[in-house]
Amino acid sequence: MRSAPALLLAALLLPGCGDTPWSGLLPGPASPGQDIAPAGPALRLTLRGRASHAALVQEMGERRLWRTAGNQVVETDGGRVVATSGLGEMLAATRFDGPDPLAAPAALLERPALARRMVDLMRADRSPEGMRFGVQVECRLRAEPTEDAAVLLVEETCRAAGEGRFTNRFWVAAEGGAVLQSRQWIGPGLPMLAVEFLSPAS
């Protein structure tokens, strides 16, 4: 079953989403072009060299939904981006075949892991020809120390069926495994998305 955040994101992807029962759960966006760092938990998203802040609007366990002032939406599961909206090409859904090795990055220091997931992709205009469902993504994850003893680098080398190859990079806390920063693939028509997790004290 899809989580509540995934359903919220799906509602945002649908035409006329302002009339959905989920619309009242999301606060209205700020004025166009206005990018103010939120006071609470937030992401700093950088795409094509342009940075914006995304505020936390919904949370259920490790699943979180974030939105920018420009009405771009990102759903994360832990430190991984699993769905997007408002970015031209959209990552509509992610489904893992088994546990995500990124959840235990320290284990990847000694033994790399293989992972497989299925993703649904969609263009912003939601045209039928731009919809690709069940795209298989096969990955190999490994971790290595960095110059900062408190941080590990996890590299995830992937092949997406019909969409080519890419490498995600996650900088994670050596103790606890929380993702601090990352560069992640969010679809074949977009550059890598840089994500920084900001604490309320930032």
UniProtKB/TrEMBL annotation:
**Which InterPro entries does this one have?**
GfcB, YmcC_sf
- Official protein name in the record: YjbF family lipoprotein
Source species taxonomy: Bacteria, Pseudomonadati, Pseudomonadota, Alphaproteobacteria, Acetobacterales
